[in-house]
Amino acid sequence: MANDGPEITSDREGQGQSPSSSLIHGVDLKLTLIIWAICAVLYYVTSTFDEVSPLLTQNIPPEWFPRLLIWFIVILSLILPFEHRFLEKGKKGLDEGRTTRIPMGAIVTAGLLVLVVAAIVVLGTFLAMVLVCAALPLLWGERRWKILIPYIILFPTLVALLFTKVLRVFFEPGLIGIAF
User: Fold this and answer.
1) 79-87 own/partner pairs: CB under 8 Å, 24+ apart
2) Terminus-to-terminus CA distance in the chain, angstroms?
3) Cα-Cα-Cα-Cα dihedral of 38, 42, 44, 49, to 10°?
4) 10 Å Cβ neighbour count for 18?
5) For tag attachment on the chain, is the N or C end more exposed, with fewer CB atoms within 10 Å?
6) Could you count the other beta carbons within 10 Å of the beta carbon of residue 91?
7) Digit-coded pLDDT (tens) for 58-94
C-alpha cells in the first residue's frame, strides 16, 4: 500500500515521531516557549519599578530600556523554531551539534559574569567593566600583556566617557567604585 503522507522518521532519544520535512523544530519550539515565559516574568518585573536613582534619571522611564531588550529577545526567539530550515543539513545537522556537552569555559564565563553583575553594587559599574575586561581575556587564554593592558585601561574608559559625556547616562558608582 502506497503512503501518500509525509515520511516519518524517528527523532533520537525517544523524542517522538515527526515528519522529516516539518516546518517547526519541536525542541526549538519548546525553547522558544521557555524564553517567552522568562520574558513575560521579566516584563512584569519592569512594571514594578518605583523610583529611579538620581544618577540614572533621564528623559525616559526606568522600564523603557529593559522592555526594549525583552522585546528584542522575544522577536529574535521567533526564529528559533525555524532555524533548521536555514541550515544545509536541516534538523539532522542542528541536532548533531547538540550532542556535545557545553564546554567548561562557557560555564565558568557565565558564572564570572553573574558574579560581576552581583558585585556592581559594591564595585560600581566602571570597576565591574574593568574587572570583566581583565578577567575574560585571561580566562580565555590571552597572555599578550602588550595588548591586554591597553585594552583593560582604554576600553572601559572609552565606554564610560561615551555614556557619560555623549549619551548623558551615568553609571552606578557602587560603594567603592568610581563615579563619572
Assistant:
1) 80/25, 80/28, 80/29, 80/31, 80/32, 80/35, 81/24, 81/25, 81/28, 81/29, 81/32, 82/23, 82/24, 82/25, 82/28, 83/25, 83/28, 84/25, 84/28, 85/23
2) 77
3) 170
4) 16
5) N
6) 21
7) 666 677 778 889 999 999 999 888 887 777 766 776 6
